[in-house]
Amino acid sequence: MNLPPHCEASAFYTPDSKVKGFKVLEITGPAYPALSYNRRDFYKIVLGTGNMHIYYGDQTFDITGTFLFFANPYIPYSSEHRSPEQKGFACLFTKDFIGSRDRTERLLNSPLFRFDGTPVIPVSSEQAAFIEVLYRQMLSVYSGEYDEKDEMLRSCIDLIMHEALRILPQNGAKQRNAASRITYLFMDLLEKQFPIEVATDPLKLRTAQDFADQLAVHVNYLNRSVKEVTGKPISVHIAERITAEAKALLQHTNWSIGDIGYSLGFEYPSYFNNYFKRVTGASPNSFRKSLGKV
């Protein structure tokens, strides 16, 4: 289900955004033309009713009726409407909005968002009515002045996911192709290395070859599969995850720059400094100072 262009990622970054990293809206009216087939930087859950094709990674879903759609930002997707009208609800959120590491891990490991999971789930009228109540609750909270609105919105997301998981066994899981399966295994291996809790135990897997050796496949096959499914090569996934962990360690620990670099697999502090500055535009020390940490 396509949203008006102004309701996509830009909604998170406008000055008047009600909740940072989150947007919820009711979708009514004409169906918009298909958006470009690419990656976003946010998760999306849609409760929709319509007649359409959903293109998700290497899969095509033929939709007639009411459904839930769970979009992972690492997998390119788009939709093609066969009817002039669309209706439903959507919530969009970033991984940062989800908050805690435990919640983020549940999200990443959920069969609703995983590479080998089931992103489209048909729902009955009774099931849709229950989920619609949750969306309308989110709309009310999102526009209100409740101090704990972020947490309540996260709770609504959790409830929608739990309802989807309750429905899921009745529909079964579709087998994914080899590229999707190997991509999931790569992403799972990458994520399992984090969070880093001991500075003296550096990352073991840091290159495409490291992951290929671990998975017992040729590095070219692995890189081709990951890029086909996610739109990005392995090196970019690794760099993004290492950078995110570096920022977290700079913000939440008192480890020295050298210790942080070593824990991330950089043999010398200068290597880590150069890498971090190249990727973020700031040195590790400058980044830490910008957070008010000495």
UniProtKB/TrEMBL annotation:
Pfam families found in the cross-reference section: HTH_18
InterPro entries: Homeodomain-like_sf, HTH_AraC
Molecular-function GO term, any one: sequence-specific DNA binding
Domain HTH araC/xylS-type: 180-290
SMART domains: HTH_ARAC
Entry keyword Transcription regulation: yes
Highest taxon of the lineage: Bacteria
Keywords for the protein's UniProt record, in alphabetical order: DNA-binding, Transcription, Transcription regulation
Keyword Secreted recorded: no
Protein name: Helix-turn-helix domain-containing protein
Organism whose genome encodes this protein: Xanthocytophaga agilis
